[in-house]
Design goal:
This protein is mainly β. The chain is 5% helix and 27% strand.
């Protein structure tokens, strides 16, 4: 079973000015990585059966419902490609704060 990245699904990504990161992009990476070349599997369902392509586009609220199996890091960019957050540490479903 895969775990939901809860904070990304519920609170969403925010830019430095506090606004939602609408139409931003998110990559799910190997633990400790910040390289887009080291993606790990992410899914659209809790059973971990429906893989998604990366990057995933965030909605108008900066949210995305992504599921992962195991540890991961995140790379989040705004719609112009500027890094908003790089969580380069091993994480669990709550790592995208």
């Amino acid at each position: 079973m895969a775990a939901l990245i809860e904070s990304l699904a519920v609170s969403g990504s925010r830019k430095s000015d506090g606004t939602a990161n609408a139409s931003g992009k998110v990559w799910v990476l190997s633990p400790g990585s910040t390289s887009k070349a080291s993606t790990v599997a992410a899914f659209s369902d809790a059973d971990g059966l429906i893989a998604v392509t990366q990057p995933q586009t965030l909605d108008a609220g900066g949210r995305a419902a992504l599921y992962v199996k195991g540890a991961f890091s995140l790379l989040i960019e705004d719609s112009s490609g500027t890094t908003v957050r790089s969580a380069a540490r091993a994480g669990n479903r709550n790592a995208a704060q």
